[in-house]
Amino acid sequence: LALIRGRSTGLDELNEASVAVLCAGQTEPLALIRRKLIIGERMGSVPPDAPAVPLQRDLAAQQKRLRLKLSPDGISLDLDLRQPNDLARSQLFHRLNLLAIRWATIGENTVNAKGTFHEYWDLRWTPELDISTIEASIWGSTVEIATAAYARHQAGEAQQLSAVTQLLTAVLLAALPDTLDDLLRRLSDIASLTHDMHDLMAAAPPLVDTLRYGDVRGTDVSMVAPVLENVVLRVCIGLYRACINIDDDAAALLNAKILALESALNIAQNAELLKRWHGSLNTLANSDAAHPLLSGTAARLLFRASHLNAIDAARLMRLAFSVGNDAVYGARWLEGFMTGMEQLLVRDDALFRLIDEWVMSLEPALFENTLPLLRRTFSTFGAPAKRSLAEKVKRGERPQVTLVLDQERAERVLPIMRQILGI
């Protein structure tokens, strides 16, 4: 083969000859030989006195100090952040992840347990990580210096708020307080210039998480509060404009962002921000120009926050069901308002009758058009609520029962009650 190709015999020629002569033309046996013999499965080691870049030496020193073993096999760690050694380990892992040195991967248990003192990590060292470490050495001679420099570089390159907020969270977890000023300044600059409502709304929940859970590590996160206020105020100003003249797909995306921001602000418990937010929701709920799904969602959030009573909710529902709006509009509004509100429909006969009358008034063709939307809305209800509503529909309208008080019999009890109460 080498002679035909006009070159010296090499590994390629040896492998091809082995397949033809020893493996009867089958490549699978040679693949096993290649994996076991040519490449091997045992990880070698580099002598301690071998030349290394400063970042490699610093990382090796920290691994030794924190008693972390380099192993190609998976190692799981449960870190208690109240312990200094475990906290230092966590900070090292987060710094390495910022530098794209993927030695440690955070476990799903940690992602689902925000605010706890525990982190779960899976460690696996591969030879490629040495290359990643050498590549990251352009940012600094130690892990801390390199991570801080790289974070500043990433912030300067970012053009979206969501990218900077994710970077801010990572920097806080990596315990790099010296970079916070630069990141917050960049965050404020982008927030002041952006007109992308989706980007603004996506930035708020991570900032709230930072404020809420950052102190678990003893990190000062007070500087994040002014940035959060700026972002939320920008959202409140532009929310109504973002909710008009949009299609159903865009409304669904914006609806998810509204719900996420509502949840985040309830966690933050900032009275002034909640007041401004509820004011924006009130404008949205009372608008007939906004997408009905979003108007219905705004009414639901106001009702749950006790800023809208049942009478006002019924008024908004009548407007959505009015003759001036088509049936699809009413169904979209109902979808926004009734999601997660099945118990209200079970308890409130007035709202139940209002929806019942609207459905009964639909022409057959309109009913067929709105049925998928109605089914999607009611499919979110729990089984007990569905049974209660089915019984309510089966029972139909019941006559109103009025309680009649016998005044004469009631007055006979008053002297005894005064004696018992001592009045």
Alpha-carbon Rg, integer: 32 Å
Identify low-pLDDT runs.
Answer: none
Biggest β-sheet: strands ordered side by side in the sheet: 1-3-2
Averaged pLDDT = 83
Intertermini distance = 117 Å
Helix proportion = 55-70%
Q: Which overall shape is indicated by the principal axes computed on the Cα atoms?
A: elongated
For the largest beta-sheet, the strand count, sense and barrel status come to: 3 strands, antiparallel
Helix/strand/pairing category: mainly alpha
Q: Please report which band the strand proportion falls in: under 5%, 5-15%, 15-25%, 25-35%, 35-45% or over 45%.
A: under 5%
Order of helices and strands: HHHHEHEHEHHHHHHHHHHHHHHHH
Oligomeric status? single chain
Annotation field: number of helices: 22
How many strands in all?
A: 3
Tell me the domain tally: 4
How would you sum up this structure in a few lines?
The protein has 4 domains: 2-39, no CATH class; 55-139, no CATH class; 175-285, no CATH class; 309-423, no CATH class.
Walk me through this protein's architecture.
- The chain has 423 residues and is mainly α.
- It has four domains: 2-39, no CATH class; 55-139, no CATH class; 175-285, no CATH class; 309-423, no CATH class.
- Helix content is 66%, strand content 4%.
- It contains 22 helices and three strands.
- A three-stranded antiparallel β-sheet has the order 1-3-2.
- Helix 8 (143-157) runs antiparallel to helix 9 (161-173).
- The longest helix is centred in the middle third of the chain and has 21 residues, at 248-268.
- The radius of gyration is 32 Å and the shape is elongated.
- The termini are far apart.
- The mean pLDDT is 83.
